[in-house]
Structure formats: C-alpha cells, structure tokens
UniProtKB/TrEMBL annotation:
Protein name stated in the entry: TBC1 domain family member 15
Gene Ontology CC entries for this record: cytoplasm
Signal peptide limits: none
Recorded coiled-coil stretches: none
InterPro entries, sorted: Rab-GAP-TBC_dom (IPR000195), Rab-GAP_TBC_sf (IPR035969), SGSM1/2_RBD (IPR021935)
UniProt keyword annotations, A-Z: Acetylation, Cytoplasm, GTPase activation, Phosphoprotein
Main localisation: cytoplasm
Amino acid sequence: MSLASGHCVNVKQANSSSKKVSTEESEVIFVKENVSMRPTQDVSQQISGRFRILKRDSALFMTWIPYIPKNYVRTAFSVNSYKPSERDRNLYSIRAIPLAEIKSIWRHTPPLGWQYIIVVLNSGLAFPPLYFHNGGIRELLNKLKEHIRIVRSIHNANLYLLNEVIEDPLQKSLSSLELRDVLSVTSSAVLQEQSLPVFHSEDERSMEKLAIKGSTPSSGIDQWKFGTKQTHRHEESNPSAYQTLRPTEQLKETINDEMASTSVGSFELVESKLSDVPLSVWGRARLPPLESEEWATFLDSEGRVVDSKALRKRIFYGGLGHHLRQEVWKFLLGYHQYDSTYVEREERRAHKLKEYRILKAQWQTISDEQAKRFAKFRERKSCVEKDVVRTDRVLPFYAGDDNPNVSILHDILVTYSFYNFDLGYCQGMNDFLSPILFVMQDESEAFWCFVALMEHLAPNFNQDQNGMHSQLLAVSKLVELLDSSLHKYLKQADCLNYFFCFRWILIQFKREFEYENVMRLWEVLWTYFITEHFHLYLCVAILKKYKKKIMEEKMDFDCLLKFINGLSGHINLEAALRDAESLCVLAGNTGALCIPAGTPPSLTANMM
C-alpha cells in the first residue's frame, strides 16, 4: 500500500512501498551485526539482526534483517536465547528503505544501557528503535556523511536531519484518522527527560501516516497519542513527536504477539449466555438523570455525601442533570472529598484560587527578554495558542472572535504546563479541558478539576506506552472471551492490534458522541461503579453491535479503521452503555482476568 494512501501503515506495509534491491547487485557501504529491535518491553524478547547501508547505482538504501534461527548470532550482548519465529522475522524486517525517504535519525546514548537510533521517514513514519549493542552509531553517521547531506539540529545535538536543512515548524494533520484540530495529544514535554527531538509535520494531508509506525524502547521513553481532530507539530527541539510516531507500531505488534501466545478460557460458558437471550436483557434499564431534589437526599445537613457508593451507582445508571454537573463533577474527579462539608469545600475553593493565581503569574510575568531565552515556554505557549482556536468553536460557549472563554482555555492550559512541567502541554489536553470549563464556568475550579482528570489520564500519555498497550490488549482479550467468532475474524484480517479502537480509549470517546452525550458518558465512567475498566467493555459492545457488517463486508484494517471513524455521531449512547454493562456482568471474574494487572482505569481508586 502506498504511503500516500491516507491510511495508517505498519512495518510490513511500509516495507511493501520500499524498492526491491538485490543485495547481490548492491555495494555494502556499512554493516553492523547484532543490532536488535524489541517487540515488547521484555528485553529477553529482543530480536537481533544485521543492519546495512547498501548502494546501488547512485541510490542508498537502509536495511535491517533479523537473523534466521539456525544462524542466530550469540555474543556477550545476547542476553537471552530467544529465537524469533518466521512470522516475527517477516513482520519486523526493514527491507531496503531509500535514504532519500529518510527525514531524520535520532541518536540516543544513555549512560547506562545500549545505544539506539530512531529513523523517521519523510512521510512521518518512524521505525522502532534499533539497538546497537556493540556500538557503531558514530561510525554509521560518519559513513552517511560521506554520501549524503546530514545537518545536525541546532536545538538538539542528538538529532540529525538528512537531505534537508532545518525548517520552521509547520502543521500536519492525521486526516485518515480524522484527527485534525483539537485532538493531537503529542506532548512536547512528556519525553523531555530523554531530550528526544520533536517531529512537527509539514503537510496537512500526510500526518495520518504517523499513526502506525513506531516502537517503544524498553527503557520506557515513548509516547504515542492520537485521536480525532488531531494536529501534530514539528520542531527539532521538542522531544515528543517521534514518541508519538513510534509506539503505535510497537503496540500493534506487541499486542499481535501476545494475542498469538495466550488465550482466554470460558468461551463456551460466556457465549452460551449471549446466544440464549438478547444482550440487552443482561443490563439494567437506564434511568433519567439525577436532579436537584434527589441530589439533596445524598447529603447530610453539613453537605457531606452520606453514601458515595449509592450516589455513584445512581449516576452510573442515569447521569446528571446538567445544572448539577458543576457541583457533582468535583466529587467524581476527586477535587472534593465525599466526606467534605460545605464549609470545607468553600475554604478549599478560596485556597485553590490563590494557588492558581500564583501558578498563572509564573508565566504571565515572563518578560519578552526572558521568553527569548526560554524555548520550551515559547514552544508550549505557541502550541496552546494554535490549538485553542480550533477547540469546539461550533459551540456557542467557544464561538466567535475574541471569545473570552477561548482565552481562559488558553490560560489554563499554559498554567498547567507550568504546574506539571514534566508532562507540560500535550496537544489534545484542550479537548479534555473544553467540557470541564464549559461545566465549571470558573477558571480556577476548571483548572483544578482538569488537574485531577489528568492525574488519572496520565497512563494514556506515559512515555513507556504501557498504559495504551495494556488497554488495547485488554480489549482484544475481552473480544476473544465475549465474541470468539469476531475475534477469529479480526485475527484472520490481521487486526488483533485493535488500533482502530485507539482514539476511543485515548480520549474516552470524546469524538464519538455529541457534546452532551460526551459529558454523560464521562460522568458514567468516572463513577468507577461496576468496574474501573468500563470503557473497555464499551469498546467491545460497540464492536459487537457492528460485527455483522464488519464480517460480511470482509473489512481489512484500513477499511475497518475508516468504518470505525465514520461511526462518530452515529452511536446510540444509552444502548451502548447498557450493552457494555451486560458484557461486564456476563464476563464476570473471567473478564477481569482478561485485563492485565496495572491496566489504567477510568478513574483512580483514591478519587473514590
């Protein structure tokens, strides 16, 4: 498939677009043995191979081919006896990528551990990290300099740009995933500790190519983040974009491997229940939203929530009337404790307002002269400014020129980047903040609720990508348990990575429903009632809903991804919630066992 086809691509697909180069007819410019790639976070599962730069006529090509098992090289650096299968060898091989198609190489030489490089293509695809166990990266770069133009970034000494000079950052969008505008969640700071270069894209139509390619170094320095209406930016000093690119392919391949190596029991028991009666029978009837009069019955005379579990159950089955969200969301998000009184909450509000103003002043008092010497501040602030003007502007609350609510959105996000400097601002945070500010109607309280939300969403943005990996793997296991025929079909279609569910999980279905329904769904998820992983069962429920169409039309990954994206605005939320509850009830403890330990929940337990 062409890299310009507008779809996400994996290693195998990227190789299919590379040129056929006969090694017998090519001159070997550079070769290094025992260069490895890691399909999973387990170092013992690394795959070793031969890395080469080949020259044919006037063109140069890069290849990395895993050793075949019978010739598997063992050295002092081979920490295990792992031998890749033929499937893995074909899946992970990098076959003759023209150097003319390589945009940059990022070199990492940690004080402890092995050196590795990350190769990023002009299309935005990034190959998984290649570990040079016996050294050789410097020699590789020196050899390349003899044949092509290489420019070292003035912002990051570890970033080498091939075939071009450094340009100003331009925008690019994930059009095939419909991830344009507000949902880019690339963090320019999340990976700051590793000082990775940021890949800000240059072309509005090709950012979709980023989505699949990538991998995760076992040292845990990755970040992949995509969702609908997403925009990624490129700037050589910013470390996030390669992280955004890499882990997607890592997760796809890791999940495929893990799905192939494990299975879930009790299929017959669960599926027999599903076949006996309609799925909806297993879920309770949805209730009308909680309103003021009923809300008052959950409070004592001093304002304490008497029975938080009963309250959360009520919200789970019916949600909240909109006028109550401003008050109740603060409990659901953990900003207020359930046993706090009216007086305590007012004192906290006043204290947090002062704290917020101090945080906000930290960046508002930066002079122009300081800003000239504060690249990270300029970079984050610029990213926020570009994102907020695209955030939910169709809503009256954010519509129009010089809208003060857009300015408040901007100020909160920049302030958060100072509050959590390690994470900084991630494109897409604006998408999460928008409903919170809309509900709170107060800058300080919106900020602190957003802080609380980001605390439990952090695993989605973690550098090691374990959060997203475990959630996607859990979805695949739950489908295997609850619908084995769908699982078998997705396996045959090479879709067990479940990347098509990525934006659902990453932003908690923000782009799948209308604004009101998004708020309803979020408050249901935040109740942490039946399970902390209810959002995963919701994924399964939606897939089962459209199972017949998926299988009858024999959708491959690209078609399935397009179809899933096209469901936005066409999913019945109440029916999906009921079906998800049914699946959760039916799966029981077996379903819980499908979810890997440490899989991020919808809400952390300390918020209850």
